[in-house]
Write a structure and sequence with these properties.
The structure holds two protein chains of two kinds. By secondary structure, chain A is of the alpha/beta class. In chain A, 41% of the residues lie in helices and 19% in strands. In chain B, the strands form two sheets. In chain B, strands 2-3-1-4-11-5 form a six-stranded mixed sheet. The chains are: A alpha/beta, B alpha/beta.
Chain lengths: 394, 208
């Protein structure tokens, strides 16, 4: 006989009770922050055409995408990121809408990680995209919203900011081949000092070695300016980050912000400001974002954009590790009733709800079963409406 | 508090020497018995002993902040962490080896390679644009070419004496490796001052 596979696919999870509730609480909390900042919701399909995913976002490898086919044999992808589909929507459905568009989402992404790595293949992301605006104020809005989402978790947190223009300016003056730039980029991104040093032995350019060290607080700027020297593009990028840093510092965010001028990404996707958020008990950045002014142009609609995404699964895991998982409270009361007292039972329930309490209607036929259920679920009060009706019959 | 994952065995001995030179009290670590977690004297540092590949897993998941592990393991298993220091001990190399006197690249048949390091092997031959079939072996890889299971092996070679005694030789070097200090991507930011201090003390004592 065929044996049913009762397991769920690698990298996915079932969530129950307080844990499922925690995910909702996190996204509800974030949503409130986004809405207060003027963002409006967007939701896109779980599946997209594979061509779009592959063509637009080169950082996503073919083997990491879940693929399906539609009824005509075309290849579909379960969305591996949220920014690309949102860019698609803005470039099509919102092409004639007033700019900027401020959008937020809470939806899953799907990526195939290698087996037994303990990594999730289904990740709930919560984030915002601000499309059609560039400049200091739009960057500030995004950074501030990111800071508020991190702070709302009540864990130790840091948001680090950087600018890809700094790295790009410095690497440009070195006259490296495209392959070499890509190599240096991945080493600096991974803060792989060892490989960078070995690479530099052939290159003899001290600046490269120092790039990954440029992280910390105020003190970083002096070193970074020294490294930038006469390179005007690098100085401009640095001045911009410094200005943002000081604005945020004066606004009272000092203890939450850091600078990392060595923050680049493996792929040349971001075009300006970049930032990452860290919280206690999460072994990876839980928030990633930046300015991506070229993405919309791939959809023939040239618009600047900035956004970030929070990995809600990583946030939930960190909250649980920090002992912040609260068991859900039991109902305050349960009403036992029969057909004659149904209307009374509803009245009793409503009287509880009006007082801000919770009250369940029993689904059992006998009072004994209702009592047992109440005991199992820690419901303190059992209200029996059937006694009066029985008494009335007699 | 920072937590260090230390690779058991040969790396452990050398690393303890280095920690002692840097002024850390390793007495608990030296009389370990069956314990798995140790304190470094009065310093707010905890050390756990683990198998090499597990060191990487602990660092990637962020349950340990700093790891001491061989580059060979990083090449085979590593993905996402910061590689901060070359500790300059435990030096050896990855090599392609096989029966002495044979020309590995001769002939047109599909080559079979036996290795404990299938990822390193795959990457090496992919970069060369050569298709090979890789067989994963857990124990003495040198047996594979002797038993004619494979045309060659990719393995760690230190002195080469095991190869010689079994009639094998190194065809070519794949990569040189040594012991590295790695740091979790979040710890490096959230525990910056503690980790900076640790790295500074250690790097001052690395043999050049």
């Amino acid at each position: 006989m065929y044996k049913l596979n009762k397991n769920i696919p690698e990298g996915t999870r079932d969530l129950l009770y307080a844990e499922a509730d925690l995910y909702e609480k996190i996204t509800d909390g974030f949503t409130k922050i986004y809405v207060d900042a003027g963002f409006r919701p967007i939701s896109t399909p779980v599946v997209e055409n594979y061509d779009m995913v592959a063509a637009v976002n080169q950082s996503i490898k073919q083997e990491n995408v879940y693929k399906l086919t539609d009824n005509t044999g075309h290849l579909l992808a379960m969305r591996p990121d949220n920014t690309t589909p949102i860019a698609r929507v803005v470039a099509t459905k919102l092409k004639n809408a007033a700019m900027p568009q401020k959008l937020y989402y809470n939806q899953h992404i799907y990526r195939i990680n290698s087996d037994y790595s303990g990594k999730r293949n289904e990740i709930l992301q919560s984030g915002i995209e601000l499309v059609g605006a560039s400049g200091l104020k739009s960057d500030l809005l995004c950074i501030m919203t990111a800071l508020e989402t991190l702070k709302s978790l009540n864990l130790k947190c840091k948001l680090e900011i950087g600018h890809v223009g700094y790295f790009n300016a410095l690497i440009n003056e070195m006259n490296l081949s495209e392959d070499e730039v890509q190599t240096v980029r991945s080493f600096v991104d991974a803060k792989n000092y060892v490989s960078l040093n070995m690479f530099d032995k052939n290159l003899q350019n001290e600046k490269i070695r120092k790039l990954p060290l440029l992280y910390g607080n105020d003190e970083v700027f002096a070193e970074a300016f020294e490294l930038a020297g006469e390179n005007q593009d690098a100085v401009d990028a640095l001045n911009y980050v410094k200005k943002l840093y000081e604005l945020l510092k004066n606004a009272g965010y000092e203890e939450y912000i850091m600078v990392d001028m060595g923050m680049v990404h493996k792929f040349d996707y971001y075009t300006g400001l970049v930032f990452r958020g860290y919280i206690d008990n999460a072994g990876e950045p839980v928030l990633k974002g930046g300015r991506y002014d070229r993405l919309l142009a791939s959809f023939d609609y040239d618009q600047p954009a900035i956004g970030f995404a929070v990995n809600v699964c990583a946030v939930a895991d960190a909250l649980i590790k920090s002992g912040k998982l609260c068991e859900m409270p039991s109902a305050d009361a349960i009403v036992h009733y029969n057909e004659e007292t149904y209307a009374d039972a509803i009245k009793v329930k409503n009287s509880y709800v009006e007082r801000g309490l919770t009250c369940e209607l029993s689904v059992f036929d006998t009072l004994e079963e209702t009592n047992n259920y109440a005991k199992n679920m820690n419901v303190e009060t059992v209200i029996d409406t059937t006694k009066e009706s029985e008494a009335a019959e007699k | 508090m920072i937590r260090i994952a230390l690779t058991k065995g040969r790396i452990e001995q050398k690393a303890i020497e280095l920690l002692k030179k840097a002024g850390y009290d390793c007495s608990e670590l030296e009389e370990k018995g069956r314990k798995l977690v140790f304190k470094l004297g009065a310093d707010d540092i905890e050390v756990v002993l683990a198998k090499a590949a597990d060191v990487i897993t602990y660092i990637e998941h962020g349950v340990c902040d700093v790891g001491i592990v061989g580059e060979d393991t990083i090449m085979e298993h590593g993905k996402w962490f910061h590689e901060i220091l070359d500790l300059n001990f435990g030096k050896c190399k990855f090599a392609l080896a096989g029966i002495k006197g044979k020309d590995f690249y001769q002939g047109y048949t599909h080559k079979i390679i036996a290795s404990k390091y299938p990822n390193v092997t795959k990457k090496y031959f992919n970069n060369k644009g050569i298709d090979v079939e890789i067989v994963k072996i857990e124990g003495s890889v040198e047996l594979a070419p002797i038993l004619q299971l494979s045309d060659a092996i990719v393995d760690i070679v230190e002195t080469g004496s095991t190869l010689r005694e079994n009639g094998l030789e190194v065809y070519e070097d794949v990569a040189y490796v040594s012991t590295r200090l790695i740091v979790n991507t979040a710890s490096i930011k959230l525990k910056k001052s503690e980790i900076d201090d640790f790295v500074k003390r250690i790097s001052a004592q690395i043999e050049k």
